[in-house]
Design brief:
disordered N terminus, mainly beta, 303 residues, 7% helix, 2 domains, 36% strand, globular, seven-stranded antiparallel beta sheet, 4 helices, six-stranded antiparallel beta sheet
Amino acid sequence: MIAVLEQRSLDCRLLGRDMPKNSHSFLTQKELDPDFIAFNANNRRYHFPRRAYLVFRAAFIQVDPQLFGRPSRRASLLLPYSYVQGRPTYAVDPYGFEEVFLPVNLLCKKQDIDENCCPENIDVQRIGLFKGEYDIYDFYPSLKALENGKNFVRTPENETGPIINEKRIGYQIQILSKTTGLGRLCNFTQVLTYTKNVVNGVVHPDQGKTIDDIALSGQDQSQPPFRQYFLGNPTFADPISAAFRPNSHYVWDYETCIHSGGRDMGKCKHKKCCIKWQFSARINADEILVEGPIIEKGKPKCE
């Protein structure tokens, strides 16, 4: 399983550490196919962006897309760990597409491992494709099943940017972090303040209130699908939206943080990294305006 880690994640801080028994991901930090978890606990498969990985075969289910273009790979086709030409301790295949050979300094001893996660940075992806080849339904699969679920997300679903349709107005973003150590041990928090919340020309009762946004959503920030990983670092998405109504004005202020975790977190330079950002939207007879996320001056703060 170590062989399919992303290159950045395979270092002394990850080797030899197991995920919790009730987790739907392992060292790969990829999500188990939820349909297979209950169906057959032995034949589990993990989702990678381009292919699915079957644990008991130590191989991807689909044919290597590089196989026919590179004859040298064909000899290793029937070997265990064929996706890295039978050398899982020297190479990784983070996307199920092509092997990447590890530098020597990443091959280390188990006793060098610290059991912690230390935050180094946090940012908001506002425009462009989701990092990690995700789409919004990877984070919120339940929205896909809802009859009106498409109203709450941006189209195309694999992009960040404004959400504007007949029912909702908002912004689809991705929170990106940079950590060292075991990324699964860090925790996200997100606090939302309804600085302005005017709907149909009427001030909403929530205006001025501050809430725990993740807790209110009912999502579990500690594991997929809400939490995913990009280059071994925790990430999540947020399709912020409000009712599309005439004479409405929304200004919502967020503070999103990633916190250190683990039994050795006292060794971390920073206890947390936070970023403050704002979403705003205005709807009136003359214009429809969506702004955000606007990052507070100074950008992320680690302390």
